[in-house]
């Protein structure tokens, strides 16, 4: 924005110098030449709306200052300029008349007589009429020289046969006046920007803002405050804050203390009131009152959380992504869809790779919380200290290496949504108590924090372990177990839904073709039968990885049994342990992974059923003595 400066020049010399300095400083000027005699002050008044600052000199500057409402900068007459004019006037004679505008500085001019040892008589004027009269008075004096500051006065003197000398301002004084005018404009622009910025902040704040001075008089009231206080008129500005005691329910201005977080009702709206003091040089000059509607703060908090959720904390899968037509999977999906209609805690049990997170995301996406975040964490993937900070967050400086500003915990991120705790059986006992508190009290405290944060989350937990047995072994808290095991969903392993394998294989072939730009069409029926005979201990995840390998390595569009058998030979370290055939199917025993003691018990129970509770034969098959078998049966 270019500065708008008007120069009211009173002489040809001033006009020429101002033009040269304007070009030198690259500060644009509008110059009008005409002092009081040519109504320069009236022109300034007429044009003031078009300019930011006016520059002039002497009596003209003073006359302009008395009539306009914008800043006026006077070009300073230096002692050197004044003295130079007096000395030139003395060349005409010892009698000197000084024409000066009426100001309080006339007494100071009188003092120059003694200092300079030059005698001169001052003729003051306030307008053009008085100036003309003073010229007549000067004319009565014999052999007198007129010293003045404007060309129009010199012209008038010449018309009356009076010698005159013009006081010329130095280039330095004119330059300083232009720079000062430009600085005033720049300062005004910055102040205006600051005021507009402050006004924008106040007017668009989500909180009501009331500014009051040291006497309790309201100076500012933003639209939100008007709405909360139910005030439609601006007449409140300039009135006392004490008039609104009934609105606040207490005298907000009863003392000079700071008030923070006071919860009250205004017009049946729950709000939080804060009052802060404004101090200048240790003196209180006013205060600011803020009023925040609690409901809007909650919505704003949710909006902030949603912005975080949009960074990836979403559930991508739904029940349409669960592939299979077996009775086992259909029943599981049907039960899961019932669970999805509620916000109750769910415990999903299933072997590794069976699709526990797929079901968790699907449940979330049909639940009342589907518009909220879905936050997932594998509890077995992190050491205890990291798991705690991820779940509950931490404050700045809580521990060495803590991020500046602290960190939100996953429970905070999952507010109004779902948190999926995969492998929950791996959570250390020390953290289980904190997790239980979240479930019971719906609140968390960050590491290093001193305040409790309310959270509203649904917990979906998943495990491939026998949590009930872990409770009996004191490895999992009983109270936590019953808290998370409200709704129980068991995912069938792939070996219990072998009829779904062809559908899964077809889907994986399509996915891998797109991923690796291959063109595998299908698998022969014999090849598919080989896949169906294998138990897939890694379940769907293992099958997906196998199909990806097959798609990459196959050089034919329809994969046959021989290629499948070859890949299975490489895939299974000991083929007889996984691939079922008509020759070995009776010799295979399937047990779940666990502790050595757990697996021993599974083997004993399974073989005991096969030989129909014949303890002697059972001991023989196991290769142990009867007494050893008896001890192991007692340990069950």
From TrEMBL:
<dbReference type="InterPro" id="IPR003593">
    <property type="entry name" value="AAA+_ATPase"/>
</dbReference>
<dbReference type="InterPro" id="IPR000014">
    <property type="entry name" value="PAS"/>
</dbReference>
<dbReference type="Pfam" id="PF02954">
    <property type="entry name" value="HTH_8"/>
</dbReference>
<keyword id="KW-0067">ATP-binding</keyword>
<keyword id="KW-0238">DNA-binding</keyword>
<dbReference type="InterPro" id="IPR013767">
    <property type="entry name" value="PAS_fold"/>
</dbReference>
<keyword id="KW-0804">Transcription</keyword>
<dbReference type="Pfam" id="PF00989">
    <property type="entry name" value="PAS"/>
</dbReference>
<dbReference type="GO" id="GO:0000156">
    <property type="term" value="F:phosphorelay response regulator activity"/>
</dbReference>
<dbReference type="Pfam" id="PF25601">
    <property type="entry name" value="AAA_lid_14"/>
</dbReference>
<dbReference type="Pfam" id="PF06506">
    <property type="entry name" value="PrpR_N"/>
</dbReference>
<dbReference type="GO" id="GO:0005524">
    <property type="term" value="F:ATP binding"/>
</dbReference>
<dbReference type="InterPro" id="IPR002197">
    <property type="entry name" value="HTH_Fis"/>
</dbReference>
<dbReference type="InterPro" id="IPR025662">
    <property type="entry name" value="Sigma_54_int_dom_ATP-bd_1"/>
</dbReference>
<dbReference type="GO" id="GO:0006355">
    <property type="term" value="P:regulation of DNA-templated transcription"/>
</dbReference>
<keyword id="KW-0547">Nucleotide-binding</keyword>
<dbReference type="InterPro" id="IPR058031">
    <property type="entry name" value="AAA_lid_NorR"/>
</dbReference>
<dbReference type="InterPro" id="IPR025944">
    <property type="entry name" value="Sigma_54_int_dom_CS"/>
</dbReference>
<dbReference type="Pfam" id="PF00158">
    <property type="entry name" value="Sigma54_activat"/>
</dbReference>
<dbReference type="InterPro" id="IPR025943">
    <property type="entry name" value="Sigma_54_int_dom_ATP-bd_2"/>
</dbReference>
<dbReference type="InterPro" id="IPR010524">
    <property type="entry name" value="Sig_transdc_resp-reg_PrpR_N"/>
</dbReference>
<dbReference type="InterPro" id="IPR002078">
    <property type="entry name" value="Sigma_54_int"/>
</dbReference>
<feature type="domain" description="Sigma-54 factor interaction">
    <location>
        <begin position="322"/>
        <end position="552"/>
    </location>
</feature>
<protein>
    <submittedName>
        <fullName>Sigma 54-interacting transcriptional regulator</fullName>
    </submittedName>
</protein>
<feature type="domain" description="PAS">
    <location>
        <begin position="194"/>
        <end position="240"/>
    </location>
</feature>
<dbReference type="GO" id="GO:0043565">
    <property type="term" value="F:sequence-specific DNA binding"/>
</dbReference>
<keyword id="KW-0805">Transcription regulation</keyword>
């Amino acid at each position: 924005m270019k500065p708008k400066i008007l120069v009211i020049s009173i002489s040809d010399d001033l006009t020429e110098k101002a033009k040269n300095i304007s070009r030198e400083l690259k500060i644009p000027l509008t110059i009008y030449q005409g002092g009081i005699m040519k109504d320069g002050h009236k022109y300034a008044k007429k044009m003031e709306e078009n300019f930011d600052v006016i520059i002039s000199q002497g009596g003209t500057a003073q006359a302009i200052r008395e009539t306009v409402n914008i800043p006026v900068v006077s070009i300073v007459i230096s002692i050197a300029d004044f003295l130079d004019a007096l000395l030139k006037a003395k060349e005409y004679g010892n009698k000197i008349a000084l024409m000066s505008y009426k100001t309080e500085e006339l007494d100071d001019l009188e003092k120059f007589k003694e200092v300079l040892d030059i005698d001169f008589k001052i003729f003051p004027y306030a307008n053009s009429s008085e100036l003309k009269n003073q010229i007549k008075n000067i004319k009565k004096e014999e052999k007198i020289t007129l010293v003045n500051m404007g060309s129009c006065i010199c012209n008038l003197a010449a018309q009356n046969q009076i010698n005159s000398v013009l006081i010329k301002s130095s280039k330095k004084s004119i330059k300083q006046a232009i720079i000062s005018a430009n600085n005033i404009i720049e300062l005004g622009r910055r102040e205006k920007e600051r005021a507009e910025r402050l006004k924008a902040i106040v007017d668009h704040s989500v909180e009501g803002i009331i500014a009051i001075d040291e006497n309790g008089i309201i100076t500012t009231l933003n639209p939100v405050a008007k709405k909360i206080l139910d005030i439609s008129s601006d007449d409140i500005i300039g009135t006392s804050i004490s008039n609104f005691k009934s609105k606040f329910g207490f005298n907000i201005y009863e003392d000079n203390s700071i008030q923070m977080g006071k919860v009250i009702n205004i017009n049946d709206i729950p709000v939080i009131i804060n009052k802060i003091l404004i101090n200048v040089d240790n003196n209180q000059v006013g205060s600011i009152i803020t009023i925040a509607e609690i409901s809007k703060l909650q919505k704003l908090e949710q909006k902030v959380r949603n912005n975080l959720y949009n960074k990836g904390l979403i559930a991508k899968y739904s029940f349409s992504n669960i592939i299979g037509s077996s009775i086992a999977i259909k029943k599981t999906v049907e039960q899961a869809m019932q669970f999805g209609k509620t916000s109750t805690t769910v415990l999903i049990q299933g072997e590794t790779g069976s699709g526990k997170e797929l079901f968790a995301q699907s449940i979330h996406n049909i639940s009342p919380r589907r518009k909220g975040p879905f936050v997932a964490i594998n509890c077995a993937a992190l050491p205890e200290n990291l798991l705690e900070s991820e779940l509950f967050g931490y404050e700045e400086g809580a521990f060495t290496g803590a991020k500046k500003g602290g960190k939100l915990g996953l429970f905070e991120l999952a507010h109004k949504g779902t948190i999926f705790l995969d492998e929950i059986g791996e959570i250390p006992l020390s953290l289980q108590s904190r997790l239980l508190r979240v479930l019971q009290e719906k609140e968390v405290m960050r590491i290093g924090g001193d305040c409790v944060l309310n959270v509203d989350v649904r917990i979906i937990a998943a495990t491939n372990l026998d949590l009930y047995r872990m409770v009996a072994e004191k490895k999992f808290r009983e109270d936590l177990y019953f808290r998370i095991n409200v709704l129980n969903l068991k995912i069938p392993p792939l070996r219990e839904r072998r009829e779904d394998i062809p559908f899964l294989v077809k889907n994986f072939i399509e996915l891998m073709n797109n991923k690796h730009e291959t063109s595998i069409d299908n698998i022969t029926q014999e090849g598919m039968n080989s896949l169906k005979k294998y138990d897939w201990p890694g379940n769907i995840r293992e099958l997906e990885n196998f199909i990806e390998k097959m798609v990459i390595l196959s050089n034919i569009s329809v994969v046959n049994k021989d290629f499948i058998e070859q890949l299975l030979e490489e895939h299974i370290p000991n083929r007889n342990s996984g691939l079922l055939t008509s020759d070995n199917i009776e010799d295979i025993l399937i047990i779940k992974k666990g502790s050595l003691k757990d697996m021993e018990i599974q083997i004993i129970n399974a073989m005991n059923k096969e030989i129909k509770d014949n303890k002697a034969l059972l001991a023989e098959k196991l290769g142990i003595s009867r007494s050893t078998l008896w001890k192991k049966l007692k340990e069950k």
